[in-house]
């Protein structure tokens, strides 16, 4: 149930501001621009990556984007009902971008980042069973453990450049935009797969607030709130926002018997069960927005979050319904006389898909704090912007039953503490009507990560034989410290000829300095010291590397009429090199940077007074040294490089409004990733010609939405996801599936009420898989709830 309370107060009229500066000659800036486009190859101390990546003119439109998303109130009153200027800008931006405004976010029921991918083509979120490790995937460019994220999350201009807590809670939102393709020259932080940019409500002279209560099945309870208000009119504003969330787990951990062997005629006998994967947590944000004059503004934010997500959301993949169906058919062929009996038993067991049988349920905790300051200084013909942030994220700990049985053999323990300091300074165009647009910036970051990854052995005989002098339980630990420093110069520029033809050029130069320190030990009680002794398992080592990257981008677009554009572009992107942190051999700890070259072409259009819209893009990517993770067990895995991968596909977004109250929409994406050359050095196997795993072949969203002046609202959705392989040999996979969602409500200016239901058909499907363990992550079951909204 969600209860929404919104406060609005009308302020005294204020005089309209005069323009702050008049435009001056831009010739000096043109010279700076062309100087920055000289892409002379840089010396490389370890690996050299020369790249040619074209850039869109999205970033050059960032000021007008910010102004449209956070409109200034006119005479103290926020103007609504106008055509969203940012939508117009995206229509004229030569890149594949999906945008959801505040109303569309509410209509789609987006409450956390894990809900966004269901509304965006060629964007998938790979859930590892815990929000602590959630990997974004756009066009097959995906993040993996211990590497830089391929897809970035940018919150109010601050890039969250880690894989921790990306599946976080959302509240007080203004808009969500998803950029597909390399964004190395558009944003300060390099993201070679794409960017999810989220903007929250910025305080203005208009006081406003909202509080939301949400209850549903599985004992779901959520409360979110935001409130913005001026402290000194036209000078100083504040905002507060927060959210608490809690629900019961979807899994049932059953006690009292040993789990059968997945044969359909073996009925389990349940004595006691718990729901170990329950979720609860809270997050909050405080904001000060300062505009002392017409030239300068500053945005200070402090945010914190803490989540206790219980055990990992993992089940036995071989116990899935699809596998039991195969076993049933085989049994019917072998013994036709028993087929009816087997089928009846099978029907009785299909509701047991979310059952697990563990002796230890585990936990998954994450806390984080982010401190950020963004400023804008309005110069005569440009804006100087800065973004500075300090981000601390802790996983402390993730624990799990790593043998997944009732026998107390092994447990996995993972602790990670990271601190990131980043700074982004850039100069960008101010006059958006000028044919020449530019952006020039420098980005720096310093990230320190400490990782303690352990497997706890609890069988005394095993410990005595493998760790002489220690007793059970003994933890086999890999302790690592990674220091990663980056500094980059980037530029993104465009020029429009005759108001119809535009060329966009972008470039990025980056240096990465990284260092890994690693040690492997065993810690456990001994006869001489029950409190614990330490046994050195391998010699400690340190590795230090330096990489230089040089990438660029070029795009041509043609706009024959106002609401129609064609574009084609070529780009080079990259994902930084890194280290595997559980390898005791230094030569195997490195993995190289991932370099990809992409060509894409598309069309964007809107006709019939915005009653019909169409966006279509095709792309082809060749990637060298594609990052692949190879799991050894639940707590040990390494990163490899596939020599060559090709990825191709398309994305489509279209809508039609047959009449003013009704909207029909369709989004679809298709991605085909193939290993052209990949020799797995862990398995010593060749996977040439296999499909790249963890890339859904397609995703489809179609919806029908109705909203009239009487306050009646309805939205129905059909979501389909294609086959996704979970292993490089393509033997483990998730079958195609579809889900149905619905939302119906009554809306008035001061009051509205909603009923919602997701996965109405209660489809059982998988979103991820832990390689080497036969454990998979199931998607959410059927959920439903009730929402109330009240506004004043």
Automatic annotation (TrEMBL):
Residues 91-195 form the TonB-dependent receptor plug domain. The keyword Iron applies. Keywords: Cell outer membrane, Ion transport, Iron, Iron transport, Membrane, Receptor, TonB box, Transmembrane, Transmembrane beta strand, Transport. Its main location: membrane. Residues 348-760 form the TonB-dependent receptor-like beta-barrel domain. GO terms for biological process: iron ion transport. Residues 55-88 are annotated as: Disordered. Pfam families: Plug, TonB_dep_Rec_b-barrel. GO terms for cellular component: cell outer membrane. It is found in: Cell outer membrane. It is a multi-pass membrane protein. Belongs to the TonB-dependent receptor family. This is TonB-dependent receptor. It comes from Leptospira levettii. The lineage of its organism: Bacteria, Pseudomonadati, Spirochaetota, Spirochaetia, Leptospirales.
């Amino acid at each position: 149930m969600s209860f929404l309370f919104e406060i609005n107060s009308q302020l005294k009229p204020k005089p309209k501001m005069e323009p702050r500066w008049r435009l001056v000659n831009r010739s000096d800036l043109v010279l700076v621009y062309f100087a920055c486009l000289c892409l002379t190859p840089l010396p490389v101390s370890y690996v050299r990556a020369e790249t040619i990546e074209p850039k869109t003119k999205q970033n050059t439109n960032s000021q007008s984007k910010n102004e449209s998303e956070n409109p200034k109130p006119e005479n103290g009153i926020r103007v609504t009902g106008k055509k969203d200027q940012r939508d117009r800008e995206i229509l004229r931006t030569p890149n594949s971008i999906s945008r959801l405004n505040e109303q569309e976010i509410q209509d789609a029921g987006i409450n956390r980042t894990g809900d966004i991918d269901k509304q965006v083509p060629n964007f998938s979120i790979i859930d590892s069973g815990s929000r602590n490790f959630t990997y974004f995937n756009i066009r097959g460019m995906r993040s993996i453990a211990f590497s830089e994220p391929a897809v970035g999350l940018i919150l109010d201009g601050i890039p969250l450049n880690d894989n921790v807590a990306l599946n976080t809670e959302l509240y007080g939102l203004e808009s969500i935009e998803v950029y597909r393709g390399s964004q190395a020259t558009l944003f300060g932080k390099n993201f070679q797969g794409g960017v999810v940019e989220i903007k929250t409500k910025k305080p203005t002279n208009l006081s406003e607030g909202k509080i939301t209560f949400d209850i549903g099945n599985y004992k779901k309870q959520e409360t979110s709130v935001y409130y913005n208000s001026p402290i000194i009119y036209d000078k100083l504003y504040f905002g507060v926002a927060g959210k608490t969330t809690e629900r019961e787990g979807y899994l049932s951990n059953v006690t009292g018997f040993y789990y059968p062997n997945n044969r359909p005629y073996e009925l389990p006998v349940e004595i006691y069960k718990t729901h170990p994967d329950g979720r609860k947590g809270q997050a909050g944000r405080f904001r000060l927005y300062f505009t002392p004059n017409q030239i300068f503004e500053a945005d200070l934010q402090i945010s914190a979050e803490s989540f206790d997500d219980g055990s990992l959301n993992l089940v036995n993949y071989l116990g899935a319904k699809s596998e039991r169906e195969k076993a049933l058919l085989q049994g019917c062929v072998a013994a036709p006389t028993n087929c009816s009996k087997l089928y009846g038993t099978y029907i009785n067991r299909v509701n047991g898909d979310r059952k697990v049988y563990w002796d230890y349920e585990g936990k998954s905790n994450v806390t984080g704090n982010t401190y950020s300051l963004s400023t804008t200084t309005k110069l005569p013909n440009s804006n100087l912007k800065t973004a500075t942030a300090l981000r601390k994220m802790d996983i402390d700990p993730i624990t799990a039953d790593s043998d997944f049985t009732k026998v107390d053999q092994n447990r996995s323990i993972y602790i990670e503490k990271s601190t990131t300091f980043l700074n982004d300074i850039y100069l960008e165009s101010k006059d958006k009507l000028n044919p020449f647009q530019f952006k020039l910036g420098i980005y720096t970051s310093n990230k320190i990560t400490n990782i303690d990854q352990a497997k706890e052995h609890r069988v005394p005989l095993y410990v005595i034989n493998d760790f002489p002098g220690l007793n059970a339980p003994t933890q086999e630990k890999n302790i690592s410290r990674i220091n990663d420093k980056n500094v980059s110069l980037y530029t993104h520029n465009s020029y429009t000829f005759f108001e119809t033809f535009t060329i966009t050029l972008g470039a990025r130069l980056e240096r990465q300095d990284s260092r890994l320190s690693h040690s492997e030990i065993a810690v456990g009680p001994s006869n001489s010291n029950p409190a614990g002794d330490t046994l050195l398992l391998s010699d400690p080592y340190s590795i230090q590397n330096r990489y230089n990257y040089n990438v660029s981008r070029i795009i041509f677009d043609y706009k024959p009429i106002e609401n129609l554009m064609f574009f084609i572009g070529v780009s080079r992107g990259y994902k930084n090199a890194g280290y595997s942190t559980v390898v005791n051999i230094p030569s195997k700890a490195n993995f190289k940077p991932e370099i990809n070259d992409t060509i894409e072409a598309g069309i964007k259009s809107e006709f019939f007074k915005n009653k019909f819209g169409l966006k279509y893009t095709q792309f082809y990517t060749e990637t060298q040294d594609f990052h692949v993770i190879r799991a050894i067990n639940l707590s040990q895995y390494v990163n490899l490089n596939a020599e060559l991968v090709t990825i191709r596909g398309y994305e489509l977004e279209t809508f039609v409004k047959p009449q003013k109250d009704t909207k029909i929409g369709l989004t679809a994406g298709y991605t085909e990733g193939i290993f052209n050359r990949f020799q797995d050095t862990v398995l010593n196997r060749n996977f040439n010609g296999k499909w790249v795993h963890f890339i859904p072949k397609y995703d489809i969203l179609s919806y029908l939405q109705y909203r009239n002046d009487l306050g009646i609202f309805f939205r129905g959705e059909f979501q389909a996801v294609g086959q996704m392989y979970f292993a490089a040999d393509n033997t483990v996979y998730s079958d195609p599936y579809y889900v149905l969602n619905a939302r119906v409500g009554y809306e008035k200016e001061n009051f509205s009420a909603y009923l919602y239901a997701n996965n109405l058909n209660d489809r059982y499907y998988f979103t991820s898989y832990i390689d080497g363990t036969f454990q998979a992550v199931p998607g959410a079951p059927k959920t439903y709830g009730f929402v109330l909204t009240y506004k004043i």
